[in-house]
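Schema walk-through. Below, the input block comes first and the output block second. Nothing else is stored per chain. Lengths vary across the set, and this one has 202 residues.
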Amino acid sequence: MSEYSSILLENAVNEFSRLPGIGKKTALRLSLHLLREDARHTQALAQAISQMKDNIMLCERCHNISDTKLCTICANPKRDENVVCVVSDLRDVLAIERTSTFNGLYHVLGGVISPVEGISPSDLNIQELIQRTQKETFNEIILALPATIEGDTTNYYIYKQLAEFNGKVTSISKGIAIGDALEFADEITLSRSILNRTLFQI
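--- output ---
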């Protein structure tokens, strides 16, 4: 027998609780909120989630998520196409964009090298980055990966792969605490880290 007196409610709670950071109590609160909401609002939420899952894609240029083949950043003619910022994932793009400091392009790796988690260079969009440097005219590549062992390992690997790149390879300054992810940095600290970036050194 369901502890919630309804199998349907229990199913909803179980699905919500599978989301990161959502426990059973929060899942129950969300489920009961939706139960009280007008049916149109609940249907709109369900439709938005369904459309996102079915139709969202990766930008064919930078691998950011997008509704079209080119994301809005890559398609924006006002962006500086001479500079590309290499980040781990979408959350880092969002974090940097919130600072209104960077006006170049991005390259989303899809993670960082982590032998413990079984993530190797071939699992990431590193070769795609190398190919972009051969096709596009970048003056600078900014390595903006997490200040972790995995992030440093990925920085080093990418730097070695960029041996034939003629422009600058820089990294964001250490305003970001060691072990921190970009998404958790405050906007002022992250902004200063981008503005005060330094030449990458092994």
